Amino acid sequence: MPSKEFQGQAFLNQSRKKNTDGRRKCFGLIGYYVVGNLAHVVAVTRISLELMLPPKHRVYTVMEAKWIKIPIEHRCDVDAKTKKNMAIMTEFQIDGNHFYCETLDLSRTFPSTHPAHEPCEEFVWNTFVTKPFADIGMSRWCVVLLQGVAMGRVVPTDDDKAPLGIHLALICRRSSINPGTRYFSRGLNEKSSPGNECEMEQIVFKQADDSVCFSTAVWRRGTVPIHWKSELVSQIADAAIIISDRPYEAIDVYYKRLADRYQNQPITVLNLLRVKSVHADEGNLTHHYRESLRAVKKMFNVKVDMVEFDWHHFLKLHGIEETTEALWDLTDPITNNAGLTTGVLHMSNGRFTDMTVQSKQNGILRVNCADSLDRTNLVCFFNSLHYLRNQCYAIDAASLAPKSPTASLEEIKKEMDANLLVHLTDMYIMVGDVCATLYTNTVAMHTQHMRDMTAHVTTAPSNAAILVNRRIQNQFKDKTRQKQYDIMLGINLKKYFTFSDVKYVCSNAYMFKSVPSYLDKPHRRPEDEIISNSNLCMVAPEDFDYIEIHIFLPNYFRLLEVSMVIRHGQDDTTSPSRMDVFCGTHLDDCVMAYQDLILPRCEDGTKLTFTLPPQISGLKQRNTLYDFEELTTSTHMRVVRVVCYGIAPGSCMTLGQIQVYGTDGRKALIDDVQLGVDRVTRIVANIQDEQTATSPSGDQEKNSTSLPVNNVTPIDNNYFAHVTGGDVLFSSIEDQIATTQDQRDVYVLELHRITDLNSLSFNDVLRLEMIRLKCGLSTSQRDTILIESGYKVAHYDPNNYVFWRDPKIENTIRGKLKSWNCNICRTSIKLRNIGCRYCRLSFCKNCIHNEKLDVIEYMWLFNPSTVCLDCAVRINEQRDLICEIQRLSQDRHVNNETVNEKLFDKNLMPNLDRIFHSPNHQETLLSEFPHAGILSSVATAQTSAPIESILLQEPQHYQDGINFWSSPVGIESVHIIVVLPCYAKINKITLLVDALGYNDQDKPTIRVSLGERLPLLTFMGEWQLPDGTISAHDRIDWDVSDLLTGYDMCRLVQFEVKIPKETKNNNFIHLGRFYIYGQINAAPASSPLNQKQLIQYERVINKKKKSSRVTIKTESKFYRQTSTLDLIIGQGVRVVSGFKILVSHGEQGSLSQVKDLRVGFLTENDRKELISQQVIGTYIIPKVANNTSLEFEFEKNYDNVKIIRFEFLSNYGADMIEVSHGRVSLFFTQPN
């Protein structure tokens, strides 16, 4: 055993490329549950063998269970409510209240013939938490957890027929269908199951060498099975019983459940509630109980009757002996008539070979009081005495029991074997305490009468103390304990947890392009270094300007996040400082997610997680004006392209693991968020007058800069609703578009004209956006044009031009630019000089616009400003442009989904749940969608099924043109690259002809190439289809096993499909299905580095830094009202190179972490007046672990800067209720 344990540990260490965190000894697994960034393994760590059932079935009571927390790869956002409720779940009362057996089905009465791993779900308590195991076919790894008590004791005897003694066993199984606490789980629930429902089974057996004689008695206990509840109306009085308006609704479901379990045995209800004259509420409940039995008899053929016995009242009047005598007089005829189940289990070599049933119990007694607790437990105990006497006689152990079947209480005390009586009493005390603990969180009351049966048990605890404690528990703990029940059983989870469907989607991902390596002749798969979690980082060759990573995901997803693990040695500048990210369905239709994304410097092994923008993820993000990228989200993403660059010259780039997260493409539910400016919402708070200074702290200077409530509250969409008169402004552009065939050219010409003319302005980028929408270009088409033209997309985003300007600084700037001549008419303005608050220049009264206007670019709204005539034209043009953008965006939203996208959903999405089966033989189908996929897009007719349809199974119903792919008319050739789900040796390719069939004019020739990665594909041959006409739905096979000898590691198959060139040019390509068959091979294993490679690797890792970053001493002022931080630089500091932020999380975890951080600088004159403000840029702070230090370098050094201003614009929780700002400092870089 130790050697196997050692081997297992070594295997884990090797397979995960790193050491495991340790070992935990456990006796069984209860389940597994993931919340946020933690997986919880529920393990049994201490057990007690309380019962042994024949022949050798060990029944263990769980004495201790541990919730072992395991950090998982994805750091999922978890809110405070989820954290709190997960902590509550881990306190669920498992210890001492649950039991299991790994070899015998305990969920059914003894002796069950069902396998242990096929239990009756009614009594299983870990079904929900074992679901992750069941989903992968490993449910047997977990124990079947039952709630209640399972106890067994052995009574020695002199009987030669029972050399091993007489065995007494008691099992109390608690139903899981209506779980909960006293005031949350009474009567029937929506599943028609009563609260606190238990099945009791008392077993007596004796075992000889080759047989076991046994006897069992079974009964039920639970609350009254109608719809009712209790409410505490007083701190002292009993809870009020409230009967539902529809008390008998679906009650037949419960009795049918009993009838099915007990094969339609008669049911007798023993009702222990007080009579109406003694307790009105309980009497009324009894009345409805009787009526419910009448009602259920009319619903279906069930044998059910009721007998009543007011235990409390009878006991009060007559004492315990007369009360038990009266009870037996009532119940003995019922139980004797029902009888017992008795039989013999025959064994050979310690195993059962056969079973002889001598008698079967034919009647079920169901006992209830109000709570199914104290009265019920006492009655069950006293009835069990007569059960036990009859069971002893049934197995020929009469010497242990009273002779008379009607023995009195005193006779039982004297005549029953003392050990047997002690064991029975102990068992029922335990059952009472466990049932009471699970229901009320206290031990049982009124147990002294049981304890009086023998002198060998302790005195009962005080009933009064228990009563007080029970009331406290009910009032203050029941709600929390009910949460535990619900969460453990998977009930109402949305009420307790904020769920995220985000998952790691790179498992089994494939890198379809080779990645250059610095190491000589590397024998390592790029997936092992870039996708898998490896101790080694990927090292690129020296002076490679950029490295491209191309990932093909194992299925279609809605992508939400991308992560990079920063890897480097002593010199952190070997890791890339910039990254581009593209995502798409195919390689050539990828949408830009990030361009020139800044990667901060940080410690080796730091994981940076970036939320993908709305055009990829569909998640809302901060926008001042409108959604520049639109929410054109697709759930069909499968290709991810990452470009890393930005390292020091003469260096080798080091790369760590790249991870992608998303949700299932089939099940993703995307919020119906309007596109474009339709998402623009109103500014929540009015910007205060710029002359009024506000300070959150008393020690702040009175003349300090006034800041707005600028937590990225976007501008109200209604703000532009009144704008009219845009037709004249846009008419020239519409005329230009109308006279141009290629509308793309219009946008490109205007782009180059504006960009080459001068530096971009707010009006320029708005005008370009309006032209794009007029031309019908999508945001991804626009981004492609900008990237191909060598422009940064962010420079053309109007949102980046709109930010709040400090009015005091603007006032100073206007003072510096003040002149004595009007800047329009050049007249003298010495007597009256009016400054324009937009362009900051001076004008005469006649050249100032007659109305004050809101300055949109400065975010000066609801407080109109004085502007000149020229600026008034610019501002009005901005408003007109934004209004037109809004209208055009709304039109695009209506027609957003293309025909091909609809056909994709109709034809392909139902197949995404298919499971890939991989038997290792020559005829494995390798090309079945969605496990196989298409790498690059292919020209497709508007009404055609998508190109992926060529990988589907044969359709059940053939319809021309709808189930098959076809190209547009006039297309003569296409290239189709199929990505296989695994490495394989291809043996056969089959073409299933579509519904059109082929003739000599449209019959294709097919050239086939294959390989492991691009760009290296090897041409393997040309597939000539048979001569003559080919009928629809024919199957054509091509055996390539001999042709492809030696090509055992194929992942890519390229089909070049051509049709004959026709003069009429009206033919098109059409295909049915391609089936690729072959033998699956294991992925090539990466070999460890040899000595030469290790030296090369260490040379890069141990390279010393060429420069260091020195922290600058600053004074800080934080404006809590506006989430803005000013760092004031001291005397003697001339250069600022960047900033460092120590990221922190608040109560909401990473949800509260800052996401968007705008950085700018302020300068001052000799009189220490602020004279200018400039935005350096807006930085995306990646999601990282708490207390992670990130260093961002500016694109250039800044000299003579007085104040660096940081505006905390947003967090990862999509709100600004809590933004954890962290600790920010400045640095300058100096050479070493």
TrEMBL record:
Keywords: Membrane, Transmembrane, Transmembrane helix. Coiled coil: none annotated. One of its GO terms (molecular function) is phosphatase activity. Pfam families: SAC9_GBDL_1st (PF24790), SAC9_GBDL_2nd (PF24789), Syja_N (PF02383). The keyword Ligase does not apply. InterPro entries: SAC9_GBDL_1st, SAC9_GBDL_2nd, SAC_dom, Znf_FYVE_PHD. PROSITE patterns: SAC. Residues 89-441 form the SAC domain. The chain crosses the membrane at residues 26-49. This is SAC9.
